[in-house]
Amino acid sequence: MRKKIVGIFVCVLMLTMIFPVSGTINGIKTDVDMAFKTFGGNNSAPYVPCDPYPKNGSTGVDTIVNLSWTGGDPDSNDTVIYKIYFGDETNPPLVELSGPFPANVTKFSYLTYPLDYNTTYYWKITAQDNHGALALGPLWSFTTREAIGAVPDLNAEGKLNWTDVEPGFTVEGKITVENIGDPKSLLDWEITKWPDWGNWTFTPSSGEDLMPEDGKITVEVSVVAPKEKEKNFTGHIKIINKENSSDYCIIPVSLVTPKRSQSTLFIYILEKLMGSFPLLEQLFSFTSDFKLL
Q1: Domain 43-144 bears CATH identifier 2.60.40.1120
Q2: How many whole angstroms separate alpha carbon 247 and alpha carbon 185?
Q3: In whole angstroms, what is the distance from residue 60 CA to residue 78 CA?
Q4: pLDDT tens profile 195-245
């Protein structure tokens, strides 16, 4: 039985040598030499793609870049197809099949489409020879330059008006900050002025590299009302573009501590009297229906 299997294998091998088989599978040429080298184990994989341009981790790269790398194959009779993966995600999609190229061709390139400013892109190359052997290149990245002349523009909005606030109480509000300037421009902003009455807190009080694409961010505002009673407090909050002091926004603010009504005034006077005359307090304690409103 074993001799029969060996005999059949020899016959098949002789037939393939006499009648070459050729064709294309998924864009890769197949022939007798392929079968012999694949099953015979004599084929070497292509060289691993290397020497990327831009260099891995580069910054300030132009928005149209000609990616390049070094490849090739140690088997002189092989051909190689290169799969190019490229995008702004760490697992970039396949964007192009390039080739097949002869084994002795070692320099390759791919021209990108116009890229976004100040954005990190990732790319990698996979090499596959005409026998199906693969060489997987590493993941590379680069970051494009900032837009030349891209100007940020600060915009801030908020309504900070509080009424009938008891002295010493804390009130809260919100301010929104955004960059309405050129696309990809970077805004560094800061709250530099606020009223000198009350105890103010801003979260956050500044920020960096805010882009128009980020949308609005919210600043939480809180203030402890002054201890003065029956008073109207006013003022403003100033927010600036740290790189351009002429670009700023003003948010008006106001806070009013309540005025005492007649009944409230009466209770206030009564409390003072009872504090000074304990007998008066005992007198009112006998009147169970008496309520201080």
Answers
A1: no
A2: 14
A3: 38
A4: 999 999 999 999 999 999 999 999 999 999 999 888 999 999 999 999 888
Helix, strand or coil, per DSSP, at residue 281:
helix
Show me where the domains of the chain are located: 43-144, 154-255, 260-293
Give me 19's structure tokens.
């009648």
User: Tens digit of pLDDT for each residue in 18-62?
Assistant: 344 444 444 444 443 333 344 446 889 999 999 999 999 999 999
Residues 6+ apart with CB under 8 A from 188: 206, 207, 208, 209, 210, 241, 242, 243
Is 154-255 the same fold as 43-144? Answer: yes
For domain 154-255, the CATH class is mainly beta
Q: Which of 118, 135, 116, 138 is nearest to 126 (CA)?
A: 135
